[in-house]
Amino acid sequence: MDSRDKHVHLWKSFSFAIAGIKTALWSERNMRIHFFVSLIAIGFSIFFSISKWEWLFVIVAIGGIFSLEMVNTAIERVVDLVTEDYHPLAKQAKDLAAGAVFIYAITAVVIGTIIFLPYFFRWLI
C-alpha cells in the first residue's frame, strides 16, 4: 500500500466515524439529550469564563459521555442483531452498558456542579 492509499484509507475511516456520530445523534434520544446538555455546559463555560483546567474537565465529561453513549448503542445493536429472543445474558449486556453510561452521566453532573456552582453563587451575590 503506497502512502496515497494510506491517506485515502484514513479519510475513509474518518467518514465511517462521522457516519456513526450522525447515526447516534439522529437515532438515539439519549444522545440528543447529552448533546443539548453539553451545549448548555459550553454556554455556561463561556458565560462564566471558566479556567483552562475547568475547561479540560468539561471537555472530558462531554467527550466521555458521548463516547460511552455510542458504545452503549453499539452493544445494544449487536445484541439485538444476535438474538430477538429474551436471553438473560443479552439483558445483562444491555443493562451493564446502560449502567456504565449512567455512572458516567452522574460523574459528569458532579463535575459540572463542582465547577459551576461557585460561579452561580458569585453571579447571584
Automatic annotation (TrEMBL):
Enzyme class: transferase
Cofactor: Mg(2+)
Biological processes, Gene Ontology terms: phospholipid biosynthetic process
Binding-site positions, ATP: 28, 76, 94-95
Annotated keywords: ATP-binding, Cell membrane, Kinase, Lipid biosynthesis, Lipid metabolism, Magnesium, Membrane, Metal-binding, Nucleotide-binding, Phospholipid biosynthesis, Phospholipid metabolism, Transferase, Transmembrane, Transmembrane helix
Localization per Swiss-Prot or TrEMBL: Cell membrane
EC number: 2.7.1.66
Residues given in the record as substrate binding sites: 69
TM ranges: 33-50, 56-75, 96-121
GO-annotated molecular function: ATP binding; di-trans, poly-cis-undecaprenol kinase activity; metal ion binding
Record: active site: 69 (proton acceptor)
GO annotations of cellular component type: plasma membrane
Assigned protein family: Belongs to the bacterial diacylglycerol kinase family.
UniProt-listed PANTHER family: DIACYLGLYCEROL KINASE
UniProt-recorded name of the protein: Undecaprenol kinase
